[in-house]
Amino acid sequence: MQIAITGSTGLIGKALVRALRDEGLTVIRLVRRPAAAEDEIRWDPFGEVDSAALEGVDAVVHLAGAGIGDHRWTETYKRQVRDSRVEGTRTLARALAGLDRRPAVFVSGSAVGYYGDTGDVTVDESAPEGEGFLPGLCRDWEAAAQPAVDAGIRVVHPRTGLVLSREGGLLGKVLPLFRLGLGGRLGGGRQWMSWITVADQVAALRFLLHDGLSGPVNLTAPEPVTNSGFTAAVGRALHRPAPFIVPAPVLRLALGEFADEGALVSQRVLPDRLTKAGFTFRHPDIDTALADVLA
């Protein structure tokens, strides 16, 4: 089985490439620079794809895009985040639709940002689009894959939550502070966090490649946690106190608009379609997850 992947140098992409190759599958990496290895294909998210090299691949996993929380949100950076996802997805979907031998499945990334702020209400894939920049981005991001749908390719949109890893993401950024005993909650701490470990994220993506699901699928652990609960769990796992509070105004000053749609947003998202399809989480709760991730 041949699987093409964009975003192969990212946190999730690197882990997915390793897992697929360990499974004995052939992985082709789509890169934005000139191809320099036998397993690479050059593509331009805003232009063209080497379509001939994609003929006959069995599946495509699309993970590329500018990091949503990597920089303070300015209008310029928001355009970069949006364009990298929407235009990149559209470019790839059109290329796949034009192939003579199309892949059976196109797993095209999305995020739980689609739901906006849900407060204390639990939501699954049937919930409507929320309000704000991220919900609109996720809507258009998913819609950009329509050419592949129209061509008869099974298209899945994994709506990913906060990915927990020592190597990056939210947890990777705050670990140094927690290890120094300087950890603490964000704002009031009552906001819900929908998270998933890298191991479960990769396992779920592999599941989606072979299962018959299509459309949006939430990739989040079945037990969301509040920010206060997350803070306490990290402190327990590291045997460090976590007494501090980062006030909401300070977060807004540092992060701009991202503070309200990222750090302070409350999202209590459940992986309804994934669990009903038979997927089993290795890390269903935050303590089990942190014990493994921080071991």
Notes on the structure:
It is built from 12 helices and 16 strands. 40% of the residues lie in helices and 19% in strands. The protein has a single domain, classed as Rossmann fold. With 295 residues, the chain is of the alpha/beta class. It has helices spanning 11-22, 51-54, 75-97, 133-143, 146-150, 169-179, 198-210, 227-238, 248-255, 258-263, 272-276, 286-293; strands at 2-6, 26-31, 40-42, 59-62, 105-108, 110-111, 122-123, 154-160, 162-164, 184-186, 192-193, 195-197, 215-219, 225-226, 244-246, 268-269. Helix 1 packs across helix 7, helix 3 (75-97) packs parallel to helix 4 (133-143) and helix 8 packs across helix 12 (286-293). The mean pLDDT is 94. Helix 1 (11-22) links the parallel strand 1 and strand 2.
List the helices and strands and how they pair.
Layout: E1 2-6, H1 11-22, E2 26-31, E3 40-42, H2 51-54, E4 59-62, H3 75-97, E5 105-108, E6 110-111, E7 122-123, H4 133-143, H5 146-150, E8 154-160, E9 162-164, H6 169-179, E10 184-186, E11 192-193, E12 195-197, H7 198-210, E13 215-219, E14 225-226, H8 227-238, E15 244-246, H9 248-255, H10 258-263, E16 268-269, H11 272-276, H12 286-293
Parallel strand pairs: 1-2, 1-4, 2-3, 4-5, 5-8, 6-8, 7-16, 8-13, 9-12, 10-15
Antiparallel strand pairs: 11-14
User: Mean of residue pLDDT?
Assistant: 94
Unreliable runs, pLDDT <50, ≥5 residues?
none
Please write the CATH class name: Alpha Beta
Strand content: 15-25%
Count of domains: 1
Largest sheet: 8 strands, parallel
| Structural class by sheet pairing and helices | alpha/beta
Q: What is the number of E strands?
A: 16
Q: Radius of gyration, rounded? A: 19 Å
CATH superfamily: NAD(P)-binding Rossmann-like Domain
How far is it from the N-terminal to the C-terminal residue, by CA? 33 Å
SSE topology string? EHEEHEHEEEHHEEHEEEHEEHEHHEHH
Helix percent reads 40-55%
Shape by Cα distribution? globular
Q: Assign the CATH topology.
A: Rossmann fold
